[in-house]
Amino acid sequence: MDGDKKPWDPSQLRKYDLNLEEIPRLHYKDPKIDEYIKENKPVVITESNIVKPAVQRWSLEYLERNLGHSGHTVFVSRNHKFKYYDEKKIYNRVSNTKGVEFTPPTRKVEMRIEDFMKRVKEWKKGDERIYLQQSLTTTVGNNIVEDFVKFDWDYVNGKQTKHNWGPLTSNLLFIAMEGNQTPCHYDEQENFFAQVQGYKRCILFPPSQFECLYPYPVHHPHDRQSMVDFERPDYNKFPKFKNVKGWEAVVGPGDVLYIPIYWWHHIESLLRGGPTVTVNFWYKGGPSTLEYPLKDHQKVSITRNVEKMLLEVLQDPKEVGPLLRSMVLGRYT
Ligand SMILES: O=C(O)C(=O)C[C@H](CCCc1ccccc1)C(=O)O
Ligand SMILES: [Zn+2]
What value, to the nearest 5°, has the Cα angle with vertex 91 and ends 90 and 92? Predict the structure, then answer.
């Protein structure tokens, strides 16, 4: 009896020196889900129909036939990490804070879906990896549109309304190769992360652990990303990373992970698990009325505004650190 046959094995997870707890998994009809969302805590929503048509139909073959013949946005990396960067920030002066030019860790290309799928199938160790990441609202085939309109919009719209989220800004489609990794970062949006094919491991940290995850300066192209390399953490540069405490979930087809706004997340497609397909639902956050005590993510937002203002007036990013140090050391410490 293979009742104990699990869809994945711990050997498919990369090894990190992290203190992790499991994210709760709740049936989509469970009212406790709303308590988690209200408290900005992650939860895996199971057995829902949120992206059911996609789970049933979006095989790689189906996507190849129906995704549409315009070029799709594909990131290319020489290793398994796909560290996002904001192109618009590459040329402002802070990216070479130490005077060194910013070298993008990945490059973005337009690829036809047939070529993407061919490269995924023929990939060999040592080859560059690729990761398709594109908005679903652009031109996609009619069948995909039909499946998309059959998502359980009543359910997600209901949560959006109940929790006073802002508007849905986008649904991104992600097609990853097994082993691809999106390093730890946060987004300024609420997120229903809907897993369609394959298994992804998600490691999350609350915004309160800002001091342990060392985000890049706000005007750096890697704004919102952690500077810590989880596979080789530099504890001298990032000593507080030792105290970090995360939450983990491996999501499979049909699972929807609620990633609260400003929560850090590291995502990896399981080793030897084949390609993965994900659709996310990004919503603007709700109205941020300053009610006290402030929420942790509101404090992160305040630090972002301070950094932006200081850079605006000081112009030279090399002056921001010294000014902040002179303000704080010996006075607020
Ligand atoms: O849904 C999310 O928020 C994720 O992080 C999903 C993640 C890919 C995100 C790539 C990216 C990172 C930053 C800005 C824009 C795009 C994955 O699943 O690998
Ligand atoms: Zn993200």
Answer: 100
Q: How far apart are CA 223 and CA 203, in angstroms?
A: 19
Residue 192 · residue 258 · CB < 8 Å: yes
C-alpha 59 to ligand 2 mean position (Å): 23
Return the best residue to mutate from 75, 174, 195 for the ligand 1 pocket (most ligand atoms within 8 A of CB).
174
Ligand 1 pocket member 195 (CB < 6 A): no
For ligand 1, say whether the CB of 280 is within 6 Å of any of its atoms.
yes
The pTM (predicted TM-score) of the whole model is 0.96
Burial per residue of 58-75, b for 16 or more beta-carbon CB atoms within 10 angstroms, e otherwise: bebebbbebbbeeebbbb
**H helices, E strands: number in the chain:** 9, 14
Q: Mean pLDDT across the chain, nearest whole number?
A: 95
191 CA → ligand 2 middle, Å: 8
Neighbours of ion ligand 2 (CB under 5 A): 187
Q: Identify whether the C-beta of residue 278 lies closer than 8 Å to the C-beta of residue 194.
A: yes
Kindly report the protein residue whose alpha carbon is nearest to atom 8 of ligand 1.
182
Q: Is the CB of 189 under 6 A from ligand 1?
A: no
Q: Per residue in 219-229, pLDDT tens?
A: 999 999 999 99
The pLDDT value recorded for residue 165 is 98
**Distance from chain centroid for Cα 67:** 23
Distance CA 156, CA 11 (A): 34
Report the C-alpha gap between 48 and 5 in whole angstroms: 23
